UniProtKB/TrEMBL annotation:
Functional summary from the UniProt entry: Membrane-anchoring subunit of succinate dehydrogenase (SDH).
Cofactor(s) listed: heme
Pathway named in the protein's UniProt entry: Carbohydrate metabolism; tricarboxylic acid cycle
Subcellular location: Membrane
Organism: Devosia aurantiaca
BP GO terms, sorted: tricarboxylic acid cycle
Transmembrane segments: 35-54, 60-82, 103-128
Topological type in the membrane: Multi-pass membrane protein
Name of this chain's protein: Succinate dehydrogenase hydrophobic membrane anchor subunit
Keyword terms, alphabetized: Electron transport, Heme, Iron, Membrane, Metal-binding, Transmembrane, Transmembrane helix, Transport, Tricarboxylic acid cycle
Length: 130
């Protein structure tokens, strides 16, 4: 089935429905919230980078394995992956349509999920199992 042709007149007409209003609002709020959390955690990330510069692997494992450092770092990885997914989604929505859009959105979600699971799993392994 062919998608309806979307023109500037369709988008400019407030009586036409172009996308989901609730989903767009939710993504907008999520993007701004995760961005604010990323800014808040930037201090911790800078501390880790400066603190671990030039250190041996054992020192890095000991610092990241500390629950007071590792658990917020795992949380930050999840927030960054969510922010990355939404940001890429906004960019890809502008350029892709139809079946390619659906495929790329699914791949975007899977990639961000893979990054989040791998990063959080690695940090939690250090925190709970050394």
């Amino acid at each position: 089935m062919r998608e309806p042709l979307i023109t500037k007149d369709t988008i400019a007409n407030p009586r036409t429905h172009y996308g989901s209003a609730s989903a767009s609002t939710r993504r907008f709020i999520t993007q701004r919230t995760t961005g604010a959390i990323n800014i808040a955690f930037l201090g911790m990330l800078l501390f880790l980078v400066i603190r671990l510069a030039g250190e041996e692997r054992m020192d890095v494992v000991a610092l990241v394995g500390n629950p007071w450092i590792g658990l917020p770092l795992a949380f930050l990885i999840g927030i960054v992956a969510t922010h990355m997914r939404n940001g890429m989604r906004d960019t890809l929505e502008d350029y892709l349509h139809g079946r390619m859009y659906s495929l790329v959105m699914m791949l975007n979600s899977l990639f961000c999920l893979l990054i989040a699971v791998a990063g959080i799993g690695a940090v939690l392994k250090l925190v709970f199992w050394g």
